[in-house]
Design brief:
Elements: H1 3-38, E1 43-47, H2 52-58, E2 68-70, H3 74-79, H4 84-89, H5 98-106, E3 116-120, H6 127-138, E4 143-147, H7 149-155, E5 165-168, E6 178-180, E7 183-185, H8 189-212, H9 226-234
Parallel strand pairs: 1-2, 1-3, 3-4, 4-5
Antiparallel strand pairs: 6-7
Helix pairs in contact: 1-8, 2-8, 5-6
Length: about 240
């Protein structure tokens, strides 16, 4: 079997595992999303580095649900007064700096007590993610954690200590799919996580259709009238989802 076919076969197995083992929680979390949004809450999303890919799957995409908002590290440099060098060096992520970083990051946005949070951390031990988790729970808000459980266990993660419910990316540790002549290649966790994110989108849509008969789905900018449609969905939130 050719190498790329082997990779696809392994990836398919992991996606099937994610569906089989996570589908009940995906429905439960999607219901949480729908209830939050129906109460004029926003689902706040955060992940660092490749974990941000999961965030991007949910945040303001054509065919996605409107009331998601991404908390992004790059906003610290764009409008938070943080030097690019401090981000690139990783100093903002050091345990002794994460409280200050979290203050600066959360101070950039119009966060609301009606909001809930999704924090993504493959290993569940990122100091900044843990700092945000502590703050979310101190404010008695709902928290969904997304981790790769195999990596989480191997690395001594603690994010799940704060989560109301969590999802598993269902990838191995280390995160590689193939062993070719003793060389391991081909990561899978981000791809599986992105599929999980789209299952959450689908089930959140299902929730709105069942409960309200319509869903706040964003249109592609290539569709005539999309701007008017999308603005009608997002304008009521003001700067909360911008």
């Amino acid at each position: 079997m050719e190498i790329k076919k082997k990779y696809v076969e392994v990836l398919k197995q992991q996606i099937e595992k994610a569906y089989d083992t996570q589908h009940e929680k995906i429905v439960e979390i999607s219901n949480m999303f729908g209830k939050c949004m129906s109460n004029n809450g926003v689902v706040q999303l955060f992940g660092i580095d490749h974990d941000e890919e999961f965030v991007n799957e949910l945040n303001y995409r054509a065919g996605g649900i409107a009331p998601f908002h991404a908390i992004k590290i790059k906003d610290l440099t764009l409008r938070g007064g943080v030097k690019v060098a401090d981000v690139e060096s990783g100093s903002i992520y050091l345990p002794e700096n994460v409280a200050k970083t979290a203050d600066a990051l959360m101070g950039l946005y119009e966060l609301d007590d009606r909001d809930m949070y999704v924090l993504v951390s493959t290993k569940g031990n990122d100091p900044l993610v843990l700092e945000l988790a502590k703050r979310v729970k101190a404010n008695n808000q709902k928290l969904v954690a997304v981790v790769n459980k195999a990596s989480y266990d191997a690395c001594g993660g603690t994010l799940l200590d704060y989560a109301d419910i969590w999802l598993d990316m269902c990838s191995p540790e280390p995160d590689v799919a193939l062993n070719l002549n003793g060389v391991k290649i081909g990561q899978t966790s981000s791809t599986v996580a992105n599929v999980i994110a789209q299952m959450l989108t689908a089930e959140t849509y299902r929730y709105f259709i069942e409960k309200e008969g319509k869903a706040p789905v964003l249109f592609s900018a290539n569709i005539k009238g999309a701007d008017v449609h999308n603005n009608a969905l997002t304008d009521p939130y003001g700067r909360r989802i911008r």
